[in-house]
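Technical annex, item 7. During the second reporting period the consortium partners agreed on a shared format for inverse folding records so that results from different sites could be compared directly. Each record opens with the tokenized structure and is followed by the designed sequence. A conforming record, contributed by the partner at site C, is shown below for reference.
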């Protein structure tokens, strides 16, 4: 396999977004969702909380990955099909509201992304994350299955040290 620097660079942004998504997934989301519906301050409380920050940055970061994927001219059947969705443009607006200064306490672009229950935006986001995770595992530095399995329940530093040791042993 030929490693392409532009894919490795794009993977870095995916890793940032995926890390924020993993932090979000550790939160007690059902309790947050209940609070969101209780009064007009629920949404404000959420967007200013740690899980809200994790969610906003993971979604906005995913759009950055989509933008880079397109800019580099990459192709993948599954990803391309997912990116044909009109949710991509709404995610772009969500990213803009996250990373461009907004005068209001909450930009309407944030809640607009989520749309209706039927649109299932979170499921689509999950599918996009899964497709990019597969894409990057197939197109970046290969890690043997035995090494991957040994990394479960390790700290980030231990994972980095193990991967570094593996790469050095391959020289």
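Designed sequence (site C submission):
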């Amino acid at each position: 396999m030929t490693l392409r620097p532009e894919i490795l660079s794009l993977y870095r942004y995916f890793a940032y977004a995926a890390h924020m998504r993993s932090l979000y997934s550790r939160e007690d989301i059902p309790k947050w969702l209940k609070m969101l519906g209780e009064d007009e301050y629920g949404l404000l409380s959420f967007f200013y909380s740690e899980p809200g920050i994790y969610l906003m940055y993971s979604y906005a970061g995913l759009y950055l990955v989509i933008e880079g994927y397109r800019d580099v001219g990459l192709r993948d059947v599954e990803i391309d099909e997912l990116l044909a969705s009109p949710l991509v443009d709404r995610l772009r607006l969500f990213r803009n509201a996250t990373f461009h200064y907004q005068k209001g306490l909450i930009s309407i672009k944030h809640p607009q992304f989520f749309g209706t229950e039927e649109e299932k935006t979170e499921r689509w986001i999950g599918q996009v994350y899964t497709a990019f995770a597969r894409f990057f595992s197939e197109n970046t530095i290969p890690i043997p299955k035995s090494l991957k399995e040994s990394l479960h329940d390790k700290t980030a530093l231990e994972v980095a040290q193990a991967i570094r040791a593996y790469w050095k042993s391959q020289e």
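The CA atoms of residues 79 and 130 lie 9 Å apart. DSSP finds ten helices and no strands in the chain. All partners now use this format for quarterly exchanges.
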